[in-house]
Specification:
This protein is an all-beta fold.
Length: 605
């Protein structure tokens, strides 16, 4: 009754080559004390081994029916990643500079064990201008991760404009046909005057605003330009005039900027920042009762200069109408919703301030549902209060004006005054105001009453005796401005005037005689040489400024021999071929800036 002695093959570990891997597991040996030959059997899977560990049981049975068994381990591992095939690289075109959606193909992945494997990717819904790398990922059941990449390149190619075809070959403008707006209707650009107005549009956080529309004010023939992903716009014009650029975007308030152009030049407008309307609004119903007073206050703004808001007081017996840009008038009936939005920085202002005005305070006053260029007219003056956040003395005149977006100009208006609220009977309620600084109540409209000067805010706990405001009466809604003039410190001097030339290619009388057959410009440092070709009337002409990588250096004086003690900073900005070079200069005498220019514009050519 002795069973056979069974010896099985050693354990096996192999990498999977298919869903069920065929494995040569070897041969077991069995010996028996009676039967000379015993053939072992096993239970290994016929179709191959799956991934993982499989226990193969070997059995040997002799003639007498005595049997013995032993096991062999077969381990199939899967560490091989799937084969993933990404689609070919794709080229797309954006005709407006905005991201575009497009068919980029489908990636496939197959695995030795799992067969087809699902593929995921990080492709955006739409692709911005430039190159985007799409990463495709396939993970098999064993967790092996395979990746492949595809590059999607979006090229900004504006549609061809009929106006662009009018630009003469060989002219200055021929370099810039591609940026002519497709909706430009000008019959033909003047080759001698062709110029470009360009600029950047940001939001308050300094991020580019894409999709803003820019136009040349009152010149529809030049078409419109939409800001690209960098916030840049470009508008070709016939130079030699003062133009105004309108910048609009549905989510923001309109901005206008002026630019004086000459011929065959590129002009960079200062970067503007767009602001959204104040979210705080008040709905007003004019009930015909002069005793009814309704107050709207804007969201307070706080910065290093202080905290302020705009407060508007309406009378119930007021009527309102809208004057549109074309001069037509529409009466406003029913309730109106009003907002006041502060232009918090100079770069947010609705238009360039006059050179004699310093940025102080400006707010856009608006009725919901009206257009940017509409002016809402009121039959009764609306009293506007602005918190005296700068601490101007009581009784000081407040210079007041408004911005006319239709004419693109600032218009002076009746001055306001700095006032202080009073409680003349010490009952804790505001009942008058002081407009002269003597602490006594003043009757601004001469009707014999002090109370109507503070109507609407009297009794409101938000308005406390002792608080001071800039007060003015306004008759329409547009951007309203309270800007004091500049006051230069003692000893202030003007910036240095530019010399009659800066370093460039100029001809000094003695330059051409320095060498025979060649010359070096003293100012421009450009070497040139003519080499005659023997037997011909031709010459080889060499000029170092034409070599690849050549850059021009311009030295510009910034400060003189002395500086006033009041100087806080020194900056210099150079606009060159549409590019802006800005420098912070040490507050020291005799400072110069070396501008190194590679001769390129913004990249249109």
């Amino acid at each position: 009754m002795v069973p056979p002695v069974l010896t099985v093959p050693a354990a096996i570990t192999l990498e999977a080559t298919e869903p069920s891997t065929i494995v040569n597991i070897g041969t077991a040996r069995a010996t028996d004390n009676v039967n000379v030959t015993v053939i072992p059997t096993h239970n290994a899977p016929v179709g191959g081994f799956p991934v993982g560990v499989t226990t193969v049981t070997w059995t040997a049975t002799d003639v007498a029916g005595n049997s013995s068994s032993a096991t062999q381990l077969v381990t199939i591992t899967d560490t091989t990643v799937a084969t993933i095939i990404a689609p070919l690289d794709v080229n797309l075109v954006s005709t407006d500079g905005n991201p575009v959606a497009g068919m980029i193909g489908v990636a496939t992945a197959t695995d030795l064990v799992d067969g087809n494997v699902a593929v995921t990717d990080n492709a955006p819904v739409s692709f911005p201008v430039g190159a985007t790398t799409v990463i495709y990922t396939a993970t098999d059941v064993a967790g092996n991760l395979a990746t492949a990449t595809q590059v999607v390149t979006v090229t900004y190619t504006p549609p061809s404009s009929p106006a662009a075809a009018s630009i003469l070959d060989g002219s200055y403008g021929a370099l810039y046909r591609s940026i002519v707006p497709v909706d430009a209707t000008i019959a033909a650009y003047d080759a001698k005057r062709f110029s470009i107005i360009t600029g950047i549009v940001h939001d308050l956080n300094g991020q580019p605003v894409q999709g803003a529309t820019t136009r040349v004010h009152n010149h529809p023939e030049y078409g419109s330009s939409t800001t690209d992903i960098t916030g840049r716009y470009s508008l070709p014009v016939d130079g030699g005039a003062l133009f105004t650029v309108d910048i609009t975007q549905p989510s923001y308030l309109m901005v206008q900027r002026q630019v004086k152009t000459e011929w065959n030049q590129i002009y960079s407008v200062k970067t503007v920042s767009l602001i959204a309307q104040d979210t705080k609004a008040t709905t007003i119903t004019f009930d015909g009762n002069p005793a009814t007073k309704i107050v709207h206050s804007s969201t307070p703004v706080t910065d290093v200069d202080g905290t302020r808001a705009t407060h508007l007081v309406f009378s119930g017996n007021t009527t309102a109408s809208v004057t549109h840009a074309d001069g037509s008038v529409t009466p406003l009936t029913g309730p109106v919703t009003v907002r006041a939005t502060e232009f918090v920085r100079p770069d947010t202002m609705p238009g360039d301030l006059p050179p004699t005005s310093a940025f102080t305070y400006c707010a856009d006053l608006r009725v919901d549902g009206t257009a940017t260029t509409d002016s809402v007219q009121f039959s009764k003056p609306v009293v506007m209060y602005v918190d005296n956040f700068l601490g101007f003395p009581i009784g000081e005149v407040v210079p007041v004006g408004y911005y006319d977006r239709v004419k693109a100009v600032w218009v002076p208006s009746d001055n306001g005054v700095v006032v202080q609220l009073l409680d003349t009977n010490t009952d804790g309620i505001v009942d008058a105001l002081d407009s002269t600084g003597d602490g006594l109540a003043n009757d601004l409209n001469g009707d014999g009453s002090f109370a109507d000067e503070v109507a609407g805010i009297a009794g409101d706990p938000a308005y406390v005796a002792g608080n001071s405001y800039w007060r003015a009466g306004i008759t329409h809604f547009t951007p309203w401005d309270s800007n004091w003039p500049y006051d230069l410190p003692p000893g202030a001097i003007a910036p240095l005037a530019l010399p009659s030339f800066v370093e460039g290619e100029t001809n000094c009388p003695y330059e051409d005689n320095r060498c025979v057959g060649s010359q070096v410009s003293v100012e421009s440092r450009i070497f040139s040489e003519n080499i005659p070709i023997p037997g011909t009337d031709l010459k080889l002409y060499y000029k170092s400024s034409r070599t690849v990588g050549y850059k021009q250096m311009i030295t510009i004086p910034v400060t003189g021999a002395t500086l006033p003690a009041s100087v806080k900073s020194v900056t210099m900005t150079v606009n060159l071929a549409g590019r802006v070079f800005a420098y912070d200069v040490p507050i020291l005498p005799n400072q110069k800036v070396q501008l190194i220019w590679d001769g390129l514009d913004l990249g249109w050519t």
